């Protein structure tokens, strides 16, 4: 059993690694709470990535590791957005790891 995240007077269960125990607990306010813990102020660019990784998860039933994230974002948005430098500017502590956490998804299998 993990810790919990307090959002709107509700304790939401987390895995031991700090990710949501149930993706069904995710919502906009949960994303904001995770972002605050990561010292990230979410902009439209962040939300674009967050919604993209959620769609990736629905389509492939897995959270994207960085290589898959960059590749699929490049296919969808072009090289200006689909590159690791762009994603690292938005999520400095690891785009795949942090974006999936804020998106309420399980930790990508290949992330340390």
Question: How would you explain this protein's 3D organization?
Answer:
This protein is mainly α and 112 residues long. It is 48% helix and 7% strand. It has 5 helices and 2 strands, in the order E-E-H-H-H-H-H. The chain has helices spanning 28-37, 44-60, 66-77, 84-90, 95-102, and strands spanning 4-7, 10-13. Strands 1-2 form a two-stranded antiparallel sheet. The longest helix is centred in the middle third of the chain and has 17 residues, at 44-60. It is globular, with a radius of gyration of 13 Å. It starts with a strand and ends in a 10-residue tail after the last helix.
Quick structural gist:
With 112 residues, the protein is mainly alpha-helical.
Supply the key terms:
mainly alpha, 112 residues, globular
The Cα radius of gyration reads: 13 Å
Could you tell me the strand content as a percent range?
5-15%
H/E element string?
EEHHHHH
Q: Enumerate how many helices there are, as a single number.
A: 5
What is the overall silhouette?
globular
Total DSSP E strands: 2
Q: Main sheet: which strands, in order across?
A: 1-2
Helix content: 40-55%
InterPro entries: DsrC-like_C, DsrC-like_dom_sf, DsrC-like_N, DsrC/TusE
Keywords: Cytoplasm, Transferase
Pfam family, one: DsrC
Active site: 111 (cysteine persulfide intermediate)
SSE inventory with pairings:
Elements: E1 4-7, E2 10-13, H1 28-37, H2 44-60, H3 66-77, H4 84-90, H5 95-102
Antiparallel strand pairs: 1-2
Helix pairs in contact: 2-5
